[in-house]
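User: Here's a chain of 234 residues. Predict its fold as C-alpha cells.
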Amino acid sequence: MPRWTAMKSKFGFTDRSFQLLEELHANNNREWFQPHKQEIGELLLDPFADLLEVTTAKLKDARRPMIGSKQTIFRLNRDVRFSKDKRPYKEHVSGLLTPSGSKKDDSALLYAHLAADGGFIASGFYKMETKVLNLFRDRIIEDAKLFRTITRKLLKAGYEFEPFEPLKSMPRGYSEYADHEHAAYLKLKSYVVTKPQTREVWIDGSIVKRLVALHKASGDLYQFGMEAMGTSMS
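Assistant: Prediction complete.
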C-alpha cells in the first residue's frame, strides 16, 4: 500500500522535515549530509515523490493532465564546476509535473519548491529557447486583449508573475513595442506565476489542493502558450 494512502494524504512531512532543511543551510557539507542522508530520504524526498504522484492522480482527468513522480524530482547535489558558490547541496527540495512526465519536457510545467520557510508553487513556461520565446512574444502582441484577461485573472487569484532576470531593454526585433501595454512581459524569458506556501500545507497535505488549484487557474495561460507554439496539451 502506498505510504500516502496509509497516512491519509499527510505524506510524511513533519516539523523535523523543515528542521533538516534549516540544519542543511547551517551545515552545507558532506560531513553533515552523509549521516543525515537516510533521514532526508524518509522525511523529504520520499514524501515529495508521494505528493507528486497524488497530484498526478488528481489531474488524471483534467483537460491537460500533468505527470510527476520520483523521476521528476531534482537532485540535491549541486553542479559546482562553473559556479563561484561551492556549496555541494541545494537547500530545498523541488520537482515538476509536466505533460509527458519528464523533466526534459520543454512545454508547460507545474512546479513545487519545498524550503525551510515553506517554499512556493509555480506554473507556466520556464526559460524557453529564443525561437519558442519569440513565438510567445508574437502572440502577446497579436492577442493583447486575451493576454490582458489571462494575466488579470491570475493576479486576481493571488498568483504573481516571477520575472526570473528579465531583459533590461526590449528584446532584439521588438524595439518598436517599447510602449506596448505588455512591454514588461515582452522582456521576460519565462512566463511563470508563483505563490508562496507555508510549512503547514506540506504537513497537512493540502499542498496537493493548492497545486491542483494552480493548475486549474493556469489553464488559459497553458492554452495561450501552447497555441503560440503551434502545439496542444489536450
